Amino acid sequence: MTTMERKNIKTLGLLSGGLDSHIAVKLMLKLGYDVTVLNFMSPFCTCTKKSDGCKSAAHMIANECGLKIKTIFMGNEYLEMLRTPKYGYGSGMNPCIDCRIMMFRQTKKVMEEMGAKFVFTGEVVSQRPMSQMRDRLKKIEKESGMEGLIVRPLSAAVMEPTIPETMGWIDRDEMLKISGRSRKPQIEIGRELGIKKEMLCSSGGCLLTDGHFAVKMKDMLEHTETADVKDARLLRLGRHFRLNEECKIIVGRNDKENIRLSRMTKDADTLIRINNYPGPDVILKGKAANGVRELAARIAARYASAPKDAEVEVEFTAHGMEPKKLTVTALSDDAIEPLRII
Ligand code: SF4
């Protein structure tokens, strides 16, 4: 198939902003395909750093390549899936197989709407233990209704032929043979394709694979049936303490976090502030009975810039309620530690 003929073949590429999907996009463009890209975001992506003004890495790449990009945000329905993923979790709270199935189901819809012949990704066979082993790639394709329709340009030369290959839209000899966990081949190919040095080390990150984050996520899902995207975003901020089965607090670690925390307070939350010393903003989630309120106040006082044993005035504000004040001394670190979620 000539480059001119490929221009008439519409394809949809998944672009995370990491190196592998960047290579896949560059390669398919070099071969002459008509490429549109699709970017998935969730509250757990770490690949969406605002590295250039307000653009994510995926948007920067799409702009640089002159491509149309569509972004799909996976929000509350993703959190629902996260509670009981059919195929379980990886090393953290990462439900990779279910996550990919969910992404490909949505991708299928976009592919059909735009009339693309197939989808391509930056996946590398055997690179990730949970979702990129051959049998799992197949399972994901089958459950998402995308069997044979996903081309993986970085590994396609060492994989079973796809429908696009049997139809003659993809030439195996032009696909790559990368497999396994080493990143060296991608870095070399990235250089050859002219990918900028600073983009060669970028990889799409996911907080759900992080052990510390996983502990906070597990605690949230176990204790809050109504947890939503806003709650999930809060897990990225502050120090988290569980005061009892119904109540937790999040303590800001610096001014920036304090501002973000106070903006993310929901109507059902209580905002706690220190009146007579500089101190953190604290969000209290759940029922704040009297004993709990005092405990929260004493933890907040621990992180205030107050002398040891000083009396600290702590104010509680909640939607539709008169502010309440308590004067307390800081709780000791030994007493705080068992309450820390992470
Ligand atoms: S690492 Fe995160 S984003 Fe990637 S497949 Fe797993 S759960 Fe999904």
Describe what this molecule looks like in 3D.
With 342 residues, the protein is an alpha/beta fold. Helices cover 37% and strands 16% of the residues. It has helices at residues 3-6, 19-30, 57-65, 76-83, 96-114, 134-144, 163-166, 184-192, 197-200, 211-223, 229-234, 255-263, 290-302, 333-336, and strands at 10-14, 34-41, 69-73, 118-120, 150-151, 239-244, 247-251, 270-274, 282-285, 312-318, 324-328. The strands form 2 sheets. The protein has a 6-stranded antiparallel beta sheet with strand order 6-7-9-8-10-11, sandwiched between helices. A 5-stranded parallel beta sheet has the order 3-2-1-4-5, sandwiched between helices. Helix 3 links the parallel strand 2 and strand 3 (69-73). It is elongated and about 80 Å long. Residues 94-96, 99-100, 131, 206, 208-209 line the site of iron/sulfur cluster.
Task: Provide a compact summary of the structure.
Helix content is about 35%, strand content about 15%. By secondary structure, the chain is an alpha/beta fold. The radius of gyration is 24 Å and the shape is elongated.
Please give a handful of descriptors for the protein shown.
single chain; 342 residues; alpha/beta; Rossmann fold; 2 domains; 6-stranded antiparallel sheet; 5-stranded parallel sheet; 14 helices; 37% helix; elongated; binds iron/sulfur cluster
